[in-house]
Amino acid sequence: MKIRAVFDASCQVNDPSLNQCLYSGPNLIAKIFDILVRFRLNKIGILADIKQVFINIAISREHRDFVRFLWYDLNSKEEKIITYRFLRVVFGLTSSPFLLNATLRHHLSKYVEENAVIERIREDLYVDDLVSGGDSVGTAKEIYETSKAIMLEGGFELRKWVTNDPELRAYISSTMGDKSDSQPLGEDLTYVEVMSPNLVTPNQAVLGVAWDTITDEFVFQFDNFLNKCASLEQTKRNLLSIGLDFRSIGCDCSCHRQNQNNISVVM
After folding, report:
1. Cα pseudo-dihedral 147, 153, 155, 158, rounded to 10
2. What are the residues whose beta carbons fall under 8 Å from the beta carbon of 126, sequence distance 6 or more?
3. What are the structural domain ranges in the chain?
4. Cα-atom radius of gyration of the chain, to the nearest Å?
5. What pTM, to 2 d.p., does this model score?
6. Can you spell out the DSSP letters for 192-210?
7. Which residues face 98 on adjacent strands?
8. Domain 18-177 class, CATH top level
9. DSSP 8-state class, residue 184
10. What are the DSSP E strand ranges found in 125-225?
11. 163-203 tens-digit pLDDT
């Protein structure tokens, strides 16, 4: 079992939590629907994520007192409690997604005029996930090479590269050498994986949707879906909620259309 440190900035006892005191900033996160629809248009899909993305961004010195926490003195043999301050952006703060996205946008904006692919990369980023692709191996290779090089210049390492194209997969493996990060599996989780703890799939996941890279198909498991349908109270809200997983990727679900037609019979 792997133990992970969790910083719950929404935790509170009597006084407001840290997240209630912080300014979250504007929402710069792209819509999952838009990214998934664009992804489905590509003949060749490409996935990657940024390694340890939040700790690559420093917190301004004047703001570090706002992210203090108590812990044992690591330099003392006694169980003495002292105050530490975070030096890097903390995953779990309400402001962290904005700080990350603003930083990535600022970094990529410096290269927009030099390379037309940059705007495409910016649109295909969902927090720390790159969900992109192209209609040819050449285009896909350009996205791979450009995104990897330019992101690395800002201190962001793209890894866990996944594609449905055998030729591109072999090319990526040849450029990565012996790095284990060229494989789709890794020890640390992405933003979407952390926010979707119940996501379990033998296939590669694209923003929470299972993707079979061999057959190039989205895969849906219906066991939980059927159990949910059997236990749902027959209300308008619950009937409309059935099929949301399909509509999130631009697919129309026949059961959802049928439910819309049957809403009038629900009290």
Report:
1. 20
2. 29, 30, 32, 35, 191, 192, 207
3. 18-177
4. 22
5. 0.77
6. HHHH-TT---SSEEETTEE
7. none
8. alpha beta
9. S
10. 125-126, 129-134, 158-163, 204-206, 209-212, 217-219
11. 999 999 999 999 886 554 544 444 466 655 555 544 444 57
Beta bridge partners of 88: 58
Alpha-carbon torsion, ordered 56, 58, 59, 61, to 10 deg: 160
Between CA 149 and CA 145 the distance in angstroms is 6
Give the E-state strand segments of 67-212 in sequence order.
68-72, 81-85, 125-126, 129-134, 158-163, 204-206, 209-212
Name the nearest CA neighbour of 32 among 162, 124, 160.
Answer: 124
Task: Label residue 114 by pLDDT band (50, 70, 90).
Answer: confident
- The sign one gets for the Cα dihedral 233, 239, 240, 243 is positive
Q: Which residues pair with 75 in a beta bridge?
A: none
Residues 215/227, Cβ–Cβ less than 8 Å? no
Closest CA to 137 of 182, 170, 177: 170
Residue 226's identity, in one-letter code, is: L
Q: What are phi and psi of 45, to 5 degrees?
A: -95, 145
User: Which residues make Cβ contacts (< 8 Å) with residue 59, sequence separation at least 6?
Assistant: 67, 86, 87, 88, 89
Nearest to 129 by CA among 186, 183, 53, 202: 53
